[in-house]
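Human: If only I could read backbone structure tokens as easily as an amino acid sequence. Underneath my words sits a plain record pairing an amino acid chain with its backbone structure tokens. Take your time, and here it is.
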Amino acid sequence: MRLTRSYSTLVLGLSLGGCSAAPRVVQVVAADYALQAPDTVPAGLTQFAFANQGSVPHELAVGLLRANAGAQEMMDAGQKGLRLREGPEHYLQGAPFGVLFAWPGQTSLATMTVELQQGQ
């Protein structure tokens, strides 16, 4: 996975498992203070592509959410100014599995492929 640098963070929490073939592609688009992504993604091999339509650098982190954690916990952490590495203390079960970075007006040079497990 190739990475570039970024300064603001958008986080997407997901479940991961073993891999299969032919991933579905999910486009995630960041704007300043907004993230456009599907509300749900079915279980299975999934490739994430990340574009930034905002005016500052953004990143997309993929990790396993803690039980009973969701968007509200991630937003609360962001509003408190917590950094991505502090996610495990607030809403992630362990460290993020991967991160995609995109500069303003650009698409990440990398994609991230993961096997999603069905939610509990």
The beta strands are 10-13, 16-17, 24-31, 34-36, 44-52, 58-63, 98-102, 112-116. Residues 33 and 54 are 9 Å apart (CA to CA).
